[in-house]
Amino acid sequence: MDFGGSWNKYLPLVEFSYNNSYHASIQMAPFEALYGRRCRSPIVWHDIGHS
Question: Could you give the count of Cα atoms lying within 13 Å of 25 in the half-sphere of its Cβ?
Answer without folding.
Answer: 1
